[in-house]
Amino acid sequence: MVGSLERIHLVFACGFAILTMNLVSTAPSLQHYGRYNDTPAGRYFTIDQHTHTFIKDGKPFQYISGSFHYFRIPSSYWLDRLQKAKAAGLDGIDMYVAWNVHSPEEGVYQFDGERNLEHFLELIHQVGLLAIVRAGPYICAEWSFVSVQIVATLF
Asked: One biological process GO term for this chain (predicted)?
């Protein structure tokens, strides 16, 4: 019988192998790394490898973001805080999706009221900010049991 530590090592080894295979299989396309062209209005993002600069919609772009934990702030304050972030010069919001907030017990999913993730993302767009969504399964070291449910299903 394989112990818990051996299982964890096996999962990480398999994950590393899959990542390596994906990188090798996509090597010819790395010249377009970071580029997206299938977006509305022909928007795109790429990295200029000569100047080490982000290029967004044909112009140099410096991404400045701030972290926002929507599940820790009452939804009535979301718009105000996002507007203040924009006024402070931020381009985007870096956010976690804490699954223990949205799934307090197995098989139960809640995305309403204070947990309305769709509404929060709509507000980000309305204010004119970009979003980096960190959906997990593991999102932060300082918060216990945020994604144990997902990780536990691997074993």
From this structure: carbohydrate metabolic process
